[in-house]
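Hi R.,

Here's the chain you asked about this morning:
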Amino acid sequence: MKVFVTGVAGQLGHDVMNELAKRGIEGVGSDLAPEYSGVKDGSPVQSMAYVSLDITDAAAVRKALTEVKPDAVVHCAAWTAVDAAEDEDKRDKVRAINADGTRNIAEVCRDLDCKMVYISTDYVFNGQGTEPWKPDCTDYAPLSVYGQTKLDGELAVSGLVKKFFIVRIAWVFGLNGKNFIRTMLNVGKTHETVRVVNDQIGTPTYTLDLARLLTDMILTEQYGYYHVTNEGGYISWYDFTCEIYRQAGYTTKVVPVTTAEYGLSKAARPFNSRLDRSKLPANGFTPLPDWKDALARYLTVLRENGEL
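And here is the predicted structure, written out as tokens:
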């Protein structure tokens, strides 16, 4: 099997490539840089096949994928700077990447009749209520430019590709890039007290665990929509921060505040990011481990790397 992975300089793409290598599956990575530009941690992704690719260039996408002839494409590349996406001068670029770029890939996957995994987000929903969102729910109402463009990407994939997996995730953290945990650890080093919102509810997703599941998926024909986060129940960002500091051994005081009290964000955040993951075991997939376990493993690696 041959798998083409976009966005390998990011958190998830990096881990997907390493998971493929671990299983002896041929992986071809891609990103904008002329050469692989992710973290240099000695992992296999650094020596695997790499193609420099701008997914907004339809002709370049067709050329790259047609030459590689993959059995599956795992599309991790995306504009994920949620607040910056709201800027008037950024919106066209966000759409070009998240919606048009995804369509470019989907069109070639259709023509090659290959599998496609599209990584989406809880932001496609309006984030209201308290009930977990079902994977096959079509009650879309994104509140932000980011959410709308990711939804448009979903619709392009589902409308063009027969063999698709649309995987919605939330609260992502991994080794190859910035994330909430790293931010909180850095803030905790220099502040005695931090304010964190307690009215946005969801569950974290460790890219190392997610990469394993995505690889499981492409080895099957269980196509459709899925919701994937780590197990362990639904929590707030405040709860998450408290556990980060507890496991890291920080004494920083965490003060819970509402989203309104916190302010700052340009883009509206979903209050309800609860994702129903029950479709995973129902279709034979092993759920991700508990998020506290994932956090512990992540912090262990940060310690080993001298970051903690």
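One quick note: The radius of gyration is 19 Å.

Cheers,
M.
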